[in-house]
């Protein structure tokens, strides 16, 4: 029922959904109303897409674990509000959470750390605050988007053991402290975005060990000290080149405006086998936009353009000393713009 102009209150749709419904896609319509416990507990939903509608109100306070546990929940771009419920941490099969572009507030419940099957987390563009929990058992997570919230405090050991992490986007929060020296444990990291926070101190040399890094944005922080010459050890190879050999790497949809990320290899129930090819590898659309500002203008990259990009932005910090000559050896780099020099004395 996606991509129509359908409208109704969600509760009125309940008679249409039997207990055998395991896949529901209501995306890009004009549905409204709140999500009742009856709606969640009555069906056998494994894949739930409610994104890009007018749903509102808080999520239910409880969820029955007697029904099959969902694998994917996408309720992005609605008007949901209130706190993130703790029962989400009990959904042991959950691989995808996209609650971005809503009005959620409060902290991320510590129960989220129990989601050891989680691969994709997007809570961006909400009103979440407090510190990011230090989850040490999210071994499978590959994409984290928490930008444009009000998270504060140091990173501590958030995602400390997430060696499969490809994208970490924490832009435009209020995070403090240093870039952690355990960053090298994120050996698969390709996109690291920490722009517009309050990070300070020296860049750790462990950053130089991120061999898969393509895009690094540390601009608009309070980082200081000398730039590590070992940054030249990072090839900054464009993402599309890596995709030729790394099948689990981030892949960008062939559109100009959005990116798609394949999630998991989950087998579905036998019903609806005509959908199996399309749904075997569920896809979440990511509206990732990466911005670079130079003395000559403002550049914004998204969708297919990101496929071709590699870049570094260290501008608007407090770095001192000379630019290491070794940085001239970063031959894979496609965007080392003038803006990165704004914080560097010459």
Model description:
The protein has 346 residues and is mainly β. It has one domain (10-341): Ribonuclease Inhibitor (Leucine-rich repeat, LRR (right-handed beta-alpha superhelix)), CATH 3.80.10.10. The protein is 5% helix and 25% strand. It has four helices and 24 strands. The strands form four sheets. The chain has a ten-stranded parallel β-sheet with strand order 1-3-5-7-9-11-13-15-17-23, with no helix packed on it. The protein has a ten-stranded parallel β-sheet with strand order 2-4-6-8-10-12-14-16-18-24, with no helix packed on it. A two-stranded antiparallel sheet has the order 19-20. The protein starts with 22 loop residues before the first strand and ends in a 27-residue tail after the last strand. Residues 241-257, 262-281 and 337-346 have low confidence and may be disordered. Keywords: Cell membrane, Glycoprotein, Leucine-rich repeat, Membrane, Repeat, Signal. One of its GO terms (cellular component) is plasma membrane. This is Leucine-rich repeat-containing N-terminal plant-type domain-containing protein. It comes from Turnera subulata. It holds the Pfam family LRR_8.
């Amino acid at each position: 029922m996606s991509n129509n102009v359908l409208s109704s209150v969600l509760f009125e749709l309940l008679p249409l959904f039997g207990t055998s419904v395991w896949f529901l896609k209501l995306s890009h319509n004009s549905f409204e109303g709140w999500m009742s416990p009856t709606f969640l507990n009555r069906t056998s939903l494994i894949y739930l897409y409610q994104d890009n509608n007018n749903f509102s109100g808080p999520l239910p306070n409880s969820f029955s674990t007697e029904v099959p546990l969902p694998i994917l929940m996408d309720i992005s771009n609605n008007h949901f509000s209130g706190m993130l419920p703790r029962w989400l941490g009990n959904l042991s099969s959950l691989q995808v959470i996209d609650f971005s572009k809503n009005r959620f507030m409060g902290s991320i419940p510590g129960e989220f750390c129990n989601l050891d099957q989680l691969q994709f987390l997007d809570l961006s563009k909400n009103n979440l605050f407090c510190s990011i929990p230090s989850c040490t058992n999210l071994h499978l997570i590959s994409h984290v988007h928490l930008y444009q919230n009000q998270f504060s405090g140091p990173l501590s050991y958030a995602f400390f053991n997430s060696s499969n992490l490809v994208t970490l986007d924490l832009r435009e929060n209020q995070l403090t402290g240093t870039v952690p020296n355990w960053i090298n444990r994120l050996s698969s990291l390709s996109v690291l975005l920490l722009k517009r926070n309050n990070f300070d101190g020296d860049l750790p040399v462990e950053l130089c060990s991120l061999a898969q890094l393509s895009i690094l944005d540390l601009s608009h922080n309070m980082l200081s000290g000398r730039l590590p010459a070992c940054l030249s050890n990072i090839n900054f190879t464009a993402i599309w080149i890596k995709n030729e050999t790394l099948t689990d790497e981030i892949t960008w949809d062939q559109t100009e405006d959005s990116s798609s990320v394949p999630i998991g290899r989950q087998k579905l129930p036998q019903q609806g086998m005509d959908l199996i090819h399309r749904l075997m590898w569920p896809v979440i659309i990511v509206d990732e936009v990466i911005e670079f500002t130079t003395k000559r203008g403002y550049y914004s990259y998204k969708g297919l353009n990101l496929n071709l990009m590699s870049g570094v932005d260290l501008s608007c910090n407090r770095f001192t000393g000379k630019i290491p000559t070794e940085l001239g050896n970063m031959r894979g780099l496609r965007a080392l713009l003038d803006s990165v020099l704004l914080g560097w004395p010459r």
